[in-house]
Design a protein that fits this description.
By secondary structure, this protein is of the alpha/beta class. The chain is built from 7 helices and 14 strands.
């Protein structure tokens, strides 16, 4: 299987509008970050998208991705769902409703934000979604076992997802001991890291991620959901402990 980072930035993206810091003005493409999303390619070449934010259209075009078989949503914040309308060309091409897997709570929010996708008589150009409510237990889809990882993001529960021996977690500031059991001794762990210093009420910062790396002991750990406050990619990546890496848009890993 493969995972490609379509976006590794926070809700504002990088560069941030109007910011002139060294990260936002960097000419290194690794310092330019779309909103966080990944594409999983299964062993059968099926496509599983995790989150669909406002940069979805550009992410698909730049990465020459032409299909999504199903979408998994971590939670309902706009930087993770508001691009769903841009799935229309894929839906029209397949002639089928787009399957979306998420919390019941998230499904309700999708219906509120895209009511035109669920009406009995739809406008001909409207998208069409097929919602599947999932719980905190493994499920199978596209011949792939997917294990949700329930984490806390400020005051709401958010799902991360585990495939084989890889786990992807974004928008978290707390993981319970029960959920940590699912994350021990992985080949690849991907965690959000919004900035280098100063505790954040809704996201891990670098000290939190380093502590989790030591506790969970994955073979490799990649940082995502990165803001311009973390620093320049080429400098900060070299300063991380061995086995830890800054992810960047377009990075692809096999697992």
């Amino acid at each position: 299987m493969k995972l490609k980072f379509l976006g590794t930035g926070t809700s504002q993206g990088v560069p941030v509008i109007g910011c002139t810091c060294e990260v936002c003005t960097s000419e290194n493409p690794k310092d330019t970050r779309f909103r966080s999303s990944v594409m999983i390619t299964t062993e059968e070449s099926r496509k599983i998208l995790i989150d669909c934010g406002p940069d979805f259209r550009q992410q698909m075009l730049l990465n020459h991705e032409n299909n999504v078989d199903i979408a998994l949503l971590t939670h309902e914040h706009n930087d993770h769902v508001i691009g769903l309308d841009d799935m229309r060309p894929l839906i029209f091409k397949s002639g089928k409703d787009m399957p979306i897997y998420c919390y019941e709570r998230v499904g309700h929010e999708i219906k509120k934000r895209f009511p035109y996708a669920f009406t009995d008589v739809r406008y001909p150009g409207a998208p069409a979604f097929e919602l599947h409510e999932i719980e905190n237990k493994p499920f199978h889809v596209l011949d792939t076992e997917i294990t949700p990882i329930e984490v806390i993001h400020y005051k709401i529960t958010v799902f991360g997802y585990k495939f084989k021996n890889l786990a992807y977690i974004t928008d978290a500031n707390f993981i319970s001991d029960t959920e940590k059991e699912k994350l021990k001794n992985l080949d690849v762990l991907i965690l959000n890291c919004i900035r280098k210093f100063d505790p954040h009420p809704a996201h891990f910062v670098l000290a939190d991620v380093i502590a989790l790396f030591k506790e969970l002991q994955p073979k490799k750990l990649f940082l995502t959901h990165i803001s311009h406050h973390l620093g320049l990619h080429d400098i900060e990546d070299k300063e991380l402990p061995e086995g830890m890496h800054l992810a960047y848009d377009g990075l692809e890993i096999e697992f």
